[in-house]
Amino acid sequence: MRSALLPVLLVLSACRIEKASSGRLPGQPTGADSLAAVEQDSASRVQVESALETYYDRFQRGDWNAYRASFWPGATITTRAIPAGESRQRIWVQSVDEFVRRSPETTSRPPVFIGRMVHLDIKSYGDLADAWVVYERRAGASRDSLATSRALDAFHLYRHAGEWRVAGLAYARELPGRSLAP
Predict the structure, then answer these.
(1) Can you give the pTM of this predicted structure?
(2) 89 vs 98: CA distance, rounded Å
(3) How far apart (Å, rounded) are the C-alpha atoms in residues 177 and 145?
(4) pLDDT tens digit string along 35-80?
(5) Lowest mean pLDDT: which of 7-16, 47-56, 106-115?
(6) How does 32-57 read in b/e, with b if 16+ C-beta sit within 10 Å?
(7) Which residues pair with 138 in a beta bridge?
(8) Is the confidence at residue 5, as pLDDT, over 70?
(9) Among 53, 71, 105, 140, which is most buried by a count of CB atoms within 10 Å?
(10) Where are the alpha helices (DSSP H) in 37-149?
(11) What is the structure's pLDDT at 145?
């Protein structure tokens, strides 16, 4: 028995298990491998991050005309909410103009409102980019009464004529028991 085990151990010790750059074992490529190959162009990342910083600055200041300029015409903003005049929560897909006109974030903003990106994950390919942002806001009647809340913002951005703008935004508020804190 011992003599049969030695050759098997020698063969196994000569073997090497290799992984593809995606971390998977060798073999036929999968859909996940093609996603892993999506370019991570550092210039695009810097440009997308800059566009998002501009978006959040406009949102924080409540400059709604400038805020609209962060979006391509026809872009949508989607969330789960109870729209004004309705009694039940639903998925609310709205135009940017509708958001500005009807959203509680824009119509009843507290006197003190401070927001910031706390985490950013960008994927890009040519003129298309997705960005997931953990956004934190502190709001209240005074600096002594600020409440902190977080949301996850999922952006689809498109670049045209050198300009990155939002084609679609979906966001969700932080879930109880599932912190978005970094």
Answers:
(1) 0.74
(2) 17
(3) 23
(4) 565 556 677 899 999 999 999 999 988 888 999 999 999 999 999 8
(5) 7-16
(6) eeeeeeeeeeeebbebbbebbebbbe
(7) 114, 148
(8) no
(9) 71
(10) 42-61, 64-68, 96-102, 104-107
(11) 84
Q: Which helix (H) or strand (E) holds 36?
A: helix 31-36
Q: Considering only CA atoms, which of 69, 78, 63 is closest in space to residue 164?
A: 69
Q: Which two tokens stand for residue 56?
A: 């959040």
Question: How many residues are there in the chain?
Answer: 182
pLDDT recorded at residue 10: 53
Tokens representing residue 32 in the block: 């996940």
Which tokens is 86 given?
Answer: 């309705």
Put the strands of the sheet holding 112-125 in their side by side order.
90-95, 71-81, 163-173, 147-160, 128-140, 112-125
Q: Where are the domains of the chain?
A: 38-173
Cα–Cα dist 43/55, whole Å: 18
**May I ask the CATH architecture of the domain 38-173?**
Roll (3.10)
